Amino acid sequence: MNVLRSLLSHIVIRHSKEQTLNNGDALVSLPPRNVETLLINFGSEAERNIYEYIELRNTQRFTELRADSPASVLSKFMDLQGMMSSARMACVHASLVNLDSLHNLNERIELERRRKKESLLREQLGKELWEVEKKKKTASTTRAEVFHEAINNARPSAQARMRDVVLLFHEGELEHAECPVCLEATGEKDIALTPCAHLFCAECILSCLHTLSSTREPTGKCPECREAIKKSELTFLGHAQDAGKSPAEDQKPEAKQESTESTFDINGFSLSTKDTVAAGSTCAGDRRISYKPLTDLEKREQRAFCHTLPPEFLTSWNDGFNTIGTKVACLLEEIKSMRKDPTAKAVVFSQYLGVLDVAGQEMMARGINFVRVDGTMQQYQRADAIQSFTNDPQTVVLLLSMRGKHSGDLLYC
């Protein structure tokens, strides 16, 4: 390497910002750059609710893993990374938050907690005492746990139907149901659900089961679909001690932020940074141009398939999905202010294509000419977009997709 450096030193000249001329001026003189960071408060309650739910869940998960052991944190590194990513997405726009990912992660976490708790109790109490403790636990089971048990007991072909049935009781939309056997109205405390997602009164379905031997549990067939069922596969809604009650809503205080400012020069390169706490944009809660509200049936299906997510969170997500969003609204205000100078142009960076879609739709509706460059475009399309942004005075914004460590937020210049 020393020989190579010696050879290259005769044919290669390397310049840096630290080099100066004889008069002391910088060899590479760059224009001043001003960096201003806007610390924006959430402009709508829906966005705040989405972020606070994700943040609380992430904090609880990390605390549990850290209390277990440092090895547990390292073993769940990818899960933690995904959880942090979902929180960052919630700060950009609600539409970036993937409900399926949140739901699947919640299910995995809940299953892991349940198995770990049962394993510890079984080791501490032994087999006989464990069975006694299990019966006690059944007597104090919460309503949400019973509904979760019903969904877990459901056959794969009946998962969707079971979610719909459970959701009707969970949200209080159904208080009584007619038993197909006795044809009488049955309350929630007397209802049993089969793994094929059919509901009966507990007395009727138990009478349909029979014991073939003293060592085999009661079995039978569903009176509606004739599918074989076991007593252990039945879910009795009456086991929940809080049957009929709605889940409580959590309220958390608003966090406060501080602003800082600093200015310094580096060898002819002037850099000033300013962190400003800005109020949330007044139009952050306005409806998007592509506003498509869900119907009541679609909302019910959404809650059924994402049953681990609180209804309040889903409501906030739907509201946030169909609104402009705080960051996009702030971007639109900055572009509006920038256009007072007819020669000014802006480059908008974002790691997420979804937020570029939202920003592009809103700028198009407001008559702001822009071009976009992302990884889905062909090379000639990118070249045409950059050429138009460089030479066309009417094209004032360039939307640029950028994958980077700190590029999740919207930046403009």
Q: Strand-and-helix sequence, N→C?
A: HEHHHHHHEEEEHEEEEEEHHHEHEHE
Q: Mean of residue pLDDT?
A: 77
Q: Please give the CATH class of the domain at 275-401.
A: Alpha Beta
Q: Overall 3D geometry?
A: elongated
Characterize the biggest β-sheet: 3 strands, mixed
**Corresponding CATH architecture of the domain at 275-401:** 3-Layer(aba) Sandwich
CATH topology of the domain at 275-401: Rossmann fold
Keywords:
elongated, 13 helices, Herpes Virus-1, 3-stranded antiparallel beta sheet, Rossmann fold, alpha/beta, 3-stranded mixed beta sheet, 44% helix, 413 residues
Describe this structure in words.
The protein is 44% helix and 15% strand. With 413 residues, it is of the alpha/beta class. Among the domains are: 142-240, Herpes Virus-1; 275-401, 3-Layer(aba) Sandwich (Rossmann fold), CATH 3.40.50. The strands form 5 sheets. The protein has a 3-stranded mixed sheet with strand order 1-11-10. A 3-stranded antiparallel sheet has the order 5-4-9. Strands 6-7-8 form a 3-stranded antiparallel sheet. Helix 2 (45-68) packs antiparallel against helix 4. The longest helix is centred in the first third of the chain and has 41 residues, at 99-139.
What is this structure's SSE topology?
Layout: H1 2-8, E1 33-40, H2 45-68, H3 70-75, H4 77-92, H5 99-139, H6 143-153, H7 159-170, E2 176-178, E3 185-187, E4 191-193, E5 199-201, H8 202-207, E6 209-210, E7 219-221, E8 228-230, E9 235-236, E10 261-266, E11 269-278, H9 296-305, H10 311-321, H11 326-338, E12 346-350, H12 353-365, E13 370-373, H13 379-391, E14 397-401
Parallel strand pairs: 1-11, 12-14, 13-14
Antiparallel strand pairs: 2-3, 4-5, 4-9, 6-7, 7-8, 10-11
Helix pairs in contact: 2-4, 2-10, 6-7, 7-9
